[in-house]
Design goal:
binds guanosine-5'-diphosphate, 21% strand, binds magnesium ion, single chain, binds 6-O-phosphoryl inosine monophosphate, alpha/beta
Length: 423
C-alpha cells in the first residue's frame, strides 16, 4: 500500500467528490486540494448539516487530519476567509488543521474583471465560466506574471500587486465594467491581512515529509476529467489539470508515490456551462432528473444540464487517470425509471467508434445506446449492498465489464450514512 491516493471526478464535475472525501478522511492523515479554486463547490452532509466548500479541502471536519491547499490551487482571499468564517462556529479550528501553500497563486479583483471581459468578448461562444477569475489567474501563472500567497510575506508585496493590477487595467483599456474596483480591492486587502495570519507553509515539503513518515495522503480533485485543460472538451474546459497528473504537479508528489486512483461518477451525467454533451437529455426526462437530483450548481446556482451515462467518455477518463477503483454516485436519483440508456459507442462521421473523437460536437456525432432495465425502489434508506435491487446490481456490473475497473462504492443519498461499500 503506497502513501498517497487520489480521488477525482471522471465527468464534468459535481460528481460528489466532497461527500466521498469526507467519508474517506477517517482513513487518512493528510487531505490535499491540488488544483482549481473557488470555481469548485464541494458539498458535504452529516448530522443534518449541509456544508459547501470551495477552496478548503473536504477533510476539514475531521479534527485529526491535516488539510492542505496545495501549490496548484488558485485562491481568492475574500472567498477563502468567508469559508473560514463559516467553519469557525462549527468548531473547526483552521489554524490547527489547515496549511496553505506559499506557492499557490492569488486571484486578484482584476482577474475577475478579465474573466468577465473574456466571456463577453466570446459572445454566444462563451465558456460559461463561473466568473471567479480562474482562467486569467492560471494565465498569469504560466505567463510568469502571477502573484503568489508567499509574496504577502515580502516587503514589496504592494508594489507587486500594483504592477499586476496595472497590467490588467492596460489589457482592458477602454472596456466597460460594471464593477466597483476600489471597493473590491479594499475587501481583498483586508482578507489578505487575515490570510497571512493563517499557517502558510511550504506544503510540497510537508507532503514529502508526511510520505516519508508513512502517513496516508488523499489528494482531492476539483472539477472533472472532461473539464481538463488538455483532455476535456476544449475550449469548454477549466484552466487546470484536473486529471491524476495534476495531483503530482499541484502538490509536489512524485508519480511513483501514488497508490490508488479513485474515480467517481454519477449514475447519469451532468454538465454546467457551455460545451458539447453527447448524451444530453434536453427534454422532460432531463428536467425530471434535474429536479430529482437537485442538479443546480453548488457555486453559481445555475441549472445543470442532465443526460444518460456516457460509458465511452467514462472509459476514456479511466484510461487518462489510471483509475483503479470506481465509485458510483446518485443511484437513488434514477429510481422509478423503467429503463435506462447507457451510451456504449458513438456514430462519428457515419462510422461507429468506441473511442472519444477529437471533437464531440452534436453535428458530427450521435450516441449509440444500450437500454438496461431500471429500478423502482426508493434507495435512500438502503444501508447494505445485499438490499440493492438486482437491476441496479446488473447496471453496476455492466459498467465494470465495460471499463474493466471494480465499482467499490454506491452512493444512495447526500448524507455520509447513505454510502454502501461493495468491496
Ligand atoms: P462535487 O463538486 O463533486 O463535490 O459535487 P457537488 O457537491 O457540487 O454536487 C453533488 C451534489 O449531489 C451535492 O448536492 C451532494 O450533496 C449531492 N449528492 C452526493 N451524493 C449523492 C447521492 O448519492 N445521492 C443524492 N441524491 N445526492 C448526492
Ligand atoms: P467542482 O469541483 C462543475 C465549469 C464551468 C465552466 C467551465 C470553466 O464543484 O466539480 P471556470 O470558472 O473554471 O473558468 O469555468 O468549467 N466548472 C465546473 N463545473 N463543477 C465544477 O467544480 C466546476 N468548475 C468549473 O461551469 O463550464
Ligand atoms: Mg461541485
Amino acid at each position: 500500500m503506497k502513501g498517497a491516493d487520489i480521488l477525482l471526478g471522471l465527468q464534468w464535475g459535481d460528481e460528489g467528490k466532497g461527500k466521498i472525501v469526507d467519508v474517506l478522511t477517517r482513513d487518512y492523515d493528510v487531505v490535499a486540494r491540488f488544483q482549481g479554486g473557488p470555481n469548485a463547490g464541494h458539498t458535504l452532509e452529516f448530522e443534518g448539516i449541509k456544508h459547501v466548500l470551495h477552496t478548503i479541502p473536504s477533510g476539514i471536519f475531521h479534527a485529526k487530519a491535516v488539510n492542505i491547499v496545495g501549490n496548484g490551487v488558485v485562491i481568492d482571499p475574500v472567498i477563502f476567509m468567508r469559508e473560514i468564517d463559516k467553519l469557525t462556529p462549527m468548531g473547526v479550528h483552521c489554524a490547527d488543521c489547515l496549511r496553505i501553500s506559499r506557492k499557490a497563486h492569488l486571484i486578484l479583483p482584476t482577474h475577475r474583471l478579465l474573466d468577465a471581459a473574456s466571456e463577453a468578448a466570446k459572445g454566444k461562444n462563451k465558456i460559461g465560466s463561473t466568473l471567479k477569475g480562474i482562467g486569467p489567474t492560471y494565465m498569469d501563472k504560466t505567463g510568469r506574471n502571477g502573484l503568489r500567497v508567499g509574496d504577502v510575506e515580502l516587503p514589496d508585496f504592494m508594489e507587486r500587486y500594483d504592477a499586476l493590477k496595472s497590467k490588467h487595467l492596460q489589457m482592458m483599456d477602454g472596456a466597460e465594467h460594471a464593477f466597483d474596483l476600489a471597493a473590491a480591492e479594499t475587501e481583498w486587502h483586508a482578507a489578505m491581512d487575515r490570510l497571512k495570519s493563517l499557517p502558510l507553509a511550504d506544503t510540497d515539503v510537508l507532503i514529502q515529509e508526511a510520505y516519508r513518515a508513512g502517513k496516508r495522503i488523499l489528494a482531492e480533485g476539483a472539477q472533472g476529467t472532461m473539464l481538463d485543460v488538455d483532455f476535456g472538451t476544449y475550449p469548454f474546459v477549466t484552466s487546470s489539470t484536473t486529471t491524476a497528473a495534476g495531483a503530482c504537479t499541484g502538490l509536489g508528489l512524485a508519480p511513483n508515490r501514488i497508490g490508488e486512483v479513485i474515480g467517481i461518477f454519477k449514475a447519469y451525467c451532468t454538465r454546467v456551462g457551455s460545451g458539447p454533451f453527447p448524451t444530453e437529455l434536453d427534454n422532460d426526462l432531463g428536467e425530471e432528473i434535474r429536479q430529482k437530483g437537485h442538479e443546480f450548481g453548488s457555486t453559481t446556482g445555475r441549472p445543470r444540464r442532465t443526460g444518460w451515462l456516457d460509458l465511452v467518455a467514462l472509459k476514456y477518463a479511466v484510461e487518462v487517470n489510471g483509475v483503479t477503483q470506481l465509485m458510483m454516485m446518485k443511484a437513488d436519483v434514477l429510481s422509478g425509471l423503467e429503463s435506462l440508456d447507457v451510451c456504449t459507442a458513438y456514430r462519428y462521421r457515419g462510422e461507429e467508434v468506441s473511442h472519444l473523437p477529437y471533437r464531440l460536437d452534436s453535428n458530427l456525432l450521435e450516441p449509440v445506446y444500450q437500454s438496461l432495465p431500471g429500478w423502482s425502489e426508493d434507495l435512500t434508506g438502503v444501508r447494505h449492498t445485499k438490499d440493492l435491487p438486482a437491476t441496479l446490481e446488473s447496471y453496476v456490473r455492466f459498467i465494470e465489464d465495460y471499463t474493466g475497473v471494480p465499482v467499490v462504492l454506491v452512493s444512495v443519498g447526500p448524507d455520509r450514512e447513505q454510502t454502501l461499500w461493495r468491496r
